[in-house]
Amino acid sequence: MARLSYQQIAPILTEAYAQATGRKAIGTIPWANMVQVFGTALPTNQDNLYGVLEGVLAKTLFAVRPISEPFLGLEWDEQKYGDYLRKLTPITTEPLDNEEWNIAAEAAKENPNFACCSAPVPQDFLATRVSGGNTFARKWTIFRNQVNSAFNSQSEVAEFFSMLATERANRMKLDRISVKRSLINNAILGAVTYYAGENVNPRMNFKALTAYNADTGLSLTKEDIMQPSNFREFLIWLKASIDTLRKMMRDASVIFHANVTGKAVDRHTPAGFERLYILTKYATYFRANEAGLYNPDRLPNIGDYEEVNYWQSPDDPETVQGQANILYGDGSVVNIGDSTVRNVIALLTDRDFMGTANIDTWTAPEPYNARFGFQNTWYHNTYRSLLDWTENCLIVTLD
Asked: Taking the model in full, what pTM does it have?
């Protein structure tokens, strides 16, 4: 179970940031190292940027703006989801066709106190557990002499520190975004490469193009779908199919989630508990072709809806690469290794399928360095990336 220090998480975070911002091409990222998965077992560089500010040359412009943070619906209450968490799910007991249901046999028993009685049925539970979290830390340095010489007024100094505060908030937002992408990408990799495989659970990956061809009797490829003569009709069908899948998940069943052997649970996802993340390109296609609009104001009952520009890298928005943790049939958590999933359109899950909980945030300054005239301030937080494969999840791909 992942429980990394900030030294261990830093290379992963750096790689995720580089790919997400287009600095590097898409490549394999060990998303599994950042994610804590529910299982049945009990889990067990100094930055001198501000030392190089030049002296006053002219009026200073402060180029910073707050970042809009996506995936806010993934944030869970830190009070509810602490360092250790146990989840209990009742197992529905199916009625058995045996003597207990034979009224004539019961009535014929000699002792009248037992007539028409049946044996007690014990309540069974699936107990899953998760613990751990990854510790993040960032350090900022302020040099006394550089600040004194770099600005020509108190107002500029105030604007400078205001800029730093905004940038620090932005950096921590970017950290949280990478944490949330680790959850989303772990879900995509696990659901498509494992749970949608042979003899596991084919309902966790809806292959839209395959289903469309089956419904229409056509043999279209992805390139064919993009042709003007086919495009709008496919979008109408796709929008209707996603809506149908949403309604199917509202029925109690075992088909949209992983099940521990002998502990299968019925899950249903009411509209208010649904989470739908759809690739911005396809949401825009829907709107541009009037094939049914996906807008938050037109989805009044959905719990969490968001349009995602890309899953891992803007260079290849529909692709996810890396490692993922899944829940095996015996209740253990298993890493499925490096894999690649392409043509991902949408992610439809239960609200309780995944979320992040920040359980420890604090900041403190180091002692002032009188020799060199600077002071470091540390910002710490511990993120828990919690993923429960026994909750409903469905990945829509254009395969």
From this structure: 0.78
**Domain assignment present for 122:** no
Whether the CA torsion 278, 284, 289, 295 is positive or negative: it is: positive
Q: Residue 368 to residues 141, 149, 262, 326: CA-CA distances in angstroms? A: 10, 19, 60, 47
Helix, strand, coil % (nearest 5) of the chain?
35, 25, 40
What burial letters (b/e) apply to 188-222, b meaning 16+ CB within 10 Å? bbbbbbbbbeeeebebbbbbbbeebbeeeeeeeee
pLDDT tier for residue 113 given thresholds of 50, 70 and 90:
low
What is each CA distance from 13 to 31, 60, 187, in whole angstroms? 10, 32, 18
Q: For 313-326, how does the pLDDT look when each residue is reduced to its tens digit (9 = 90+)?
A: 999 999 999 999 99
- Residue 76 neighbours by CB under 8 Å, 6+ apart: 355, 356, 357, 386
Q: Of the candidates 45, 141, 49, 137, which has an alpha carbon nearest to the alpha carbon of residue 376?
A: 141
CATH value at residue 11: 3.90.1690
Asked whether residue 1 is assigned to any structural domain, the reply reads: no
How distant, in Å, are the alpha carbons of 40, 188, 205, 286 from that of 89? 12, 24, 24, 38
Q: How confident is the model at residue 51 (pLDDT cuts 50, 70, 90)?
A: very low
pLDDT per position as a tens digit, 239-254? 889 989 999 999 999 9
Query: Measured between alpha carbons, how far is residue 222 from residues 145, 213, 228, 245, 395 in Å?
Result: 60, 11, 13, 21, 17
Mean pLDDT computed over 223-231: 91
In a domain, 97, yes or no: no
Q: Which structural domain range is residue 316 located in?
A: 6-52+61-92+129-397
A 10 A CB-CB count for 390 gives 26
Number of compact structural domains in the chain:
1
| pLDDT one-digit tens code per residue, 144-173 | 776 666 777 778 878 888 888 888 888 888
Do the domain assignments include residue 124? no
Other C-beta atoms closer than 10 Å to the C-beta of 242 total 22
